[in-house]
Specification:
The model has no long low-confidence stretch (mean pLDDT about 85). The chain has three helices and six strands; from the N terminus they run βαβββαββα. About 25% of the residues lie in helices and about 25% in strands. By secondary structure, the protein is α/β, with parallel strands linked by helices. The longest helix has 17 residues. It has a six-stranded mixed sheet with strand order 2-3-1-4-5-6, sandwiched between helices. The protein is globular. It has a single domain, classed as 3-Layer(aba) Sandwich (Rossmann fold).
């Protein structure tokens, strides 16, 4: 089984660790404990027609890195990134967009997705403001909830599919 490294990037408090724990442990922890440096998780994406199983090594990064993360050894050999924003905090969505463009520039050809996390906190009819550079750019934009698990595994499964196609 092949293994690929995926980075979780985003501002402090957007839910990167909660997404990783929902993905790997299928649980949500109420207590907030900020990540210091990086935490590493493993998740096996099961076999699917046209794609063998893939072991994802998920690096949950500290939100304090900002764009300096792209010069850090943590990024070495990353196949993809999931860039997370908190749908209830506009500033984190702007930062998510900026990190996406910087990832694209630093690692051309590597896959990344935007994860709009905490969508369970929106009221019916609420629509977050998204920067123009996010819409229509062909970059996957996935609404997730680490609390409920909505779309978390699907986002990583889709990333595994794209990583496999690009390697073929």
């Amino acid at each position: 089984m092949i293994a690929r490294k995926i980075m979780l990037l985003g501002e402090i408090g957007v839910g990167k660790s909660s997404i990783a724990k929902r993905l790997v442990l299928d649980r949500f922890e109420i207590d907030y404990k900020p990540t210091v440096g990086v935490d590493v998780y493993q998740y096996v994406v099961p076999d699917e027609p046209g794609r063998p199983g893939m072991r994802l090594i998920v690096w949950d990064t500290d939100g304090n890195f900002g764009d300096a993360i792209f010069r850090h050894v943590y990024m070495k050999q990353a196949s993809a990134a999931m860039i997370v924003g908190d749908v209830t905090r506009t500033g984190t969505i702007d930062a998510m967009c900026r990190l996406g463009m910087e990832f694209r520039d630093a690692f051309p050809g590597r896959h990344f997705s935007y994860l709009l996390n905490k969508h369970d906190l929106l009221q019916p009819g609420d629509t977050p403001r998204l920067p123009d550079t996010m819409t229509g750019a062909g970059i996957p934009l996935i609404r997730t909830s680490a609390l409920t698990g909505d779309n978390v595994k699907d986002a990583f499964r889709a990333a595994a599919d794209i990583i496999q196609r690009r390697a073929s």
